[in-house]
């Protein structure tokens, strides 16, 4: 787990348990120094093929997580000198790739390390609250890679991350982070960092729920 400002410097994946449910080993993106590795109990990063929507018994804390003609709540993090491009596509009106759920999805890319898209979610939680972040990722065309993170924004920022590698030929993959908040916090950040010049990532069906 890291204690760092969520954005501008090179990413180093935190200690976590990385489970590839589809048996596909994923290499870290350009800005990541290592893959996730076993460590603290309660922090889990998982990856599975998109066989269906994940079960959710708690409300989704994200705004516009399905990107149905809306990016409300979402922001770009653009390091100095860089560019982050994004487009909210509607497949019913014509789009270069399919959505996972419904007709909307968000496509984005960057030319600089740390460039990303994110949403901050106000929460009131003490040490030990557990959250699940889930997202379906694919590529606009060919391969794309990057890092998916959930941050606890507090006096000392901490996070859990998973590298992703996707391809338009194989469609959407589901990435899940289960994060036990290590300290009292007033906000969580759901953030996806595409690899600089590493293809266009398509994102759909994003959710953040409290599970413990």
Which helices and strands, and how do they pair?
Layout (H helix, E strand, L loop, with lengths): L16 E4 L23 E6 L25 E3 L6 E7 L13 E7 L5 E10 L4 E10 L3 E11 L4 E10 L5 E8 L4 E10 L6 E10 L2
Parallel strand pairs: 1-2
Antiparallel strand pairs: 2-10, 3-6, 4-5, 5-12, 6-11, 7-10, 7-12, 8-9, 8-11
What does this structure look like?
The structure is a single chain. The chain is mainly beta. The chain has strands spanning 17-20, 44-49, 75-77, 84-90, 104-110, 116-125, 130-139, 143-153, 158-167, 173-180, 185-194, 201-210. It has a single domain (17-210), classed as Jelly Rolls. It is built from no helices and twelve strands. The strands form two sheets. Strands 1-2-10-7-12-5-4 form a seven-stranded mixed sheet, with no helix packed on it. The protein has a five-stranded antiparallel sheet with strand order 3-6-11-8-9, with no helix packed on it. The chain is globular and about 45 Å long. It starts with 16 loop residues before the first strand and ends with a strand. The model is unreliable at 8-41 and 50-54 (pLDDT under 50).
């Amino acid at each position: 787990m890291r204690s760092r400002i969520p954005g501008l410097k090179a990413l180093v994946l935190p200690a976590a348990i990385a489970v590839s449910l589809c048996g596909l080993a994923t290499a870290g993106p350009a800005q990541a120094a290592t893959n996730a590795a076993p460590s603290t109990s309660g922090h889990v990063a998982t990856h599975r093929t998109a066989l269906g929507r994940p079960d959710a018994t708690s409300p989704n804390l994200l705004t516009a997580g399905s990107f149905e003609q809306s990016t409300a709540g979402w922001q770009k993090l653009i390091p100095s000198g860089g560019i982050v491009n994004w487009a909210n596509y509607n497949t019913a009106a014509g789009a270069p790739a399919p959505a996972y759920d419904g007709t909307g999805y968000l496509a984005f890319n960057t030319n600089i390390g740390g460039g990303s898209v994110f949403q901050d979610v106000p929460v009131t939680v003490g040490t030990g609250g557990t959250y699940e972040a889930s997202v379906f990722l694919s590529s606009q065309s060919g391969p794309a890679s990057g890092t998916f993170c959930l941050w606890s924004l507090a006096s000392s920022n901490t996070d859990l991350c998973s590298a992703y590698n996707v391809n338009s030929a194989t469609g959407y993959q589901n990435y899940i982070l289960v994060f036990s908040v290590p300290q009292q916090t007033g906000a969580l950040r759901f953030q996806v960092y595409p690899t600089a010049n590493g293809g266009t990532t398509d994102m759909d069906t994003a959710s953040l729920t409290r599970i413990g």
